[in-house]
Amino acid sequence: MPGTIIINMPMKPYLRKFLCKKYGETYKVSFYSLLGLFLLEILDKQYRKGDSKIRQKSSYPLIIPKTFVEKVGFDMPPQKMKRFEEMLVRLFKSELEAHVDLTVEFDLYINLNEKKYKLDVMKSIKNFLEFYNINEDDLKLESVYRDYKRNKTEIGQEKAS
User: Fold this and answer.
1) What are phi and psi of 9, to 5 degrees?
2) pLDDT over 90 (residue 143)
3) Which of 6, 53, 89, 157 has the fewest CB atoms within 10 Å around its CB?
4) Whole-model pTM above 0.90?
């Protein structure tokens, strides 16, 4: 399609797998998703040379239709690419936490001791990662668990900041 731009957005491999499962092998920018709305906010018509470097880890193709290229542009300096990746990390964590909270809570464990709670949360995290085809090389299960635990006091209860 003439006028369409494809940006191969660099990101961590686990984020690429997350996006591929959620949106497909490529994503066509639109107003109808959170991802599209965020991308449209950070795209720019004016080219600015960035001074930060992006290391190519893995990439995910973003298709920007001609109408958006004309209206908002297609430039994305390295600082905005990093900001986009940070947003994806937050989106991933948010969906993971919601999944864990729902799956653990619906098993109706009322009297939780630390060991049993950990096993249930670990099982839920493992299921989430398997669903998105994320393996130990991409993201360590123990690290995800520690991060989850750091942000929660009880199931569904965020720690006060």
Assistant:
1) -80, 120
2) yes
3) 53
4) no
The set of residues, in sequence order, having a beta carbon less than 8 Å from that of 106 and lying 6+ positions away, is: none
Residue 51 has pLDDT above 80, yes or no: no
What gap in Å lies between CA 43 and CA 26, rounded to an integer? 17
* Segments of the chain assigned E as strands: 5-11, 27-28, 58-64, 152-154, 157-158
Closest to 99 measured CA to CA, from 113, 120, 115: 120
What secondary structure letter does DSSP report for 137? T
For the residues 33-38, what does the mean pLDDT come to? 86
Tokens for 16?
């690429």
In the chain, count H helices and then E strands.
6, 5
